[in-house]
Amino acid sequence: MPSLRLVLRIGLLGFGYLLGETVTADDAPNTSEPRAYLNVLRPIENPQPLLADHPEFFEPIREQQHFEAAAIVDDAEADLSVRAWRFSYNARGIIEMPNRLSASQTAIIMVHPWGIDDGQGWNTPEPAGVADFCTVEKNHLAARHTREVVRPFINSLREHVGFVMYSLPGGKDPIREKLYRSLSHSPTDEERGQGAAELATKLGNFEYRGEPLPSSLSLSADFPVIDYFRQFPGLDAGSRFNNTGFWDLPIPVTRDVDVHRDDIVIYDSEGYEPLKAFLRQQGIRHVLLTGYATDMCFCRTTAGYENLSRDFNVFLVGDASLATFPANTTPRFAVNAAISFASLNQLITQVSWVRPLTPAAGAESSSARDPDGGSATPRD
Asked: What whole-number distance in Å separates Cα of residue 228 and Cα of residue 50?
């Protein structure tokens, strides 16, 4: 069964927009000579659960077998420690490794921080409309996760990393172009003020009301189940319940993060290639990926990991993301499942595993090795 945001994107914004532009593995940069990586796996005794710092939002990862491996990324002038892990069926367990990144060559990207039901004026339509996590209560829970987990994480690294970026649906409309810096434009203070006023007016003038749920359905004798779901699906985010024009409104960045003037908004409809070109031109090699929803936008939109991981060293900050969670009051198990599946081909980190290195620690990054390729750095 398609999940909530996926149905929403396909039905309303188009399948091509959902995926953005993709590139092949042959397009990945190769700017230096390869190094020999000794793939030595050492068992970790009594491994602890992963992503266990925020159990209200994330069911911890528990696996019997964990291994320690050497660093995948070990920059010469590293000043950012990013421990990470992945899962391998062939290795029969989780593989953890330390990584040392150059912070100036790192971008933090937050996928789809929609400003819904946050006081800016873009609200879930009543009585049966759906948007984002699809109910007001679920949107408020996701907003609290943003405030308590994602915002402190971004702010703690803002002065260290090369860029902080947010991706949003749609294109660079006249209002958001004034309000946010983009890949091609940095608005003045006057433009920002004008954009904020125009956004408030635009969102405030919309009628957030659609039709009520159907009071009766027409069911055939032979196939009543088919008829039932055809007339009353689990997710209808179209004009019937959301009102015509809802998805044409400019979606703002949520108030639950701090958008600084140098932060950049990425617009999905511009496609992946401009984003890739911008990051390359700015010398970005690493991406710390946060945001929503883990099972859809986080992986498949323009700034999702399915695009970025073809060209950059991507680390999914697992507890700084939430998956959609239909038929549940908590996202814990949905985000656990989404991150666990992603870990087959992505590196996963967590908020507490990403921290600036002291100059001394960074200088030791190349020398703190066992002769056979292991790491002398203790496990966090």
From this structure: 42
**CA 279 to each of CA 109, 158, 228: distance values in angstroms, whole numbers, following the listed order:** 11, 17, 48
- d(CA 140, CA 125) in angstroms, rounded, equals 15
**Spatial separation of the C-alpha atoms in residues 315 and 98, rounded to whole Å:** 12
What's the residue count for the chain? 380
Asked if the peptide bond before residue 127 counts as cis, ω within 30 degrees of 0, the response is: yes
For the chain, the structural domain boundaries read 4-19+37-363
Residues 6+ apart with CB under 8 A from 295: 3, 5, 6, 323, 324, 334, 337, 338
**Token pair recorded at residue 325:** 């969670």
For domain 4-19+37-363, the CATH architecture is 3-Layer(aba) Sandwich (3.40)
The segments of the chain whose pLDDT lies below 50 read 1-28, 362-380
Q: In this structure, which amino acid lies at residue 8?
A: L
Q: Which pairs count as long-range contacts for 28-35, CB under 8 Å and 24+ apart, including other chains?
A: 28/310, 28/311, 29/280, 29/311
Residue pair 339/61 in contact (Cβ under 8 Å)? The answer is yes
292: nearest Cα among 329, 328, 331, 265: 331
DSSP per-residue string spanning 91-151: TTEEEEE--EE-GGGEEEEEE--B--SSSSS----BTT---TTSSHHHHHHHHHHIIIIIH
Question: pLDDT at position 33, please?
Answer: 82
DSSP assigned state of 211: P
CB 328 within 8 A of CB 334: yes
Alpha carbons 356 and 18: distance in angstroms, whole number:
34
Residue carrying the six token digits 């979606």: 251
Q: Which of 265, 263, 266, 245 lies closest to 202, judged by CA? A: 245
pTM for the structure as a whole: 0.87
Q: Which pLDDT value is given to residue 361? A: 53
> Residue 69, preceding bond cis, omega within 30 degrees?
no
Residue (of 98, 87, 63) closest to 380 by Cα position: 98
How far apart CA 91 and CA 97 sit, in angstroms, is: 14
Tokens describing residue 222: 């032979």
Alpha-carbon distance of 28 to 40, in angstroms, equals: 26
> How far apart are alpha carbons 190 and 179 in whole angstroms?
10
Q: Which helix (H) or strand (E) holds 25?
A: none
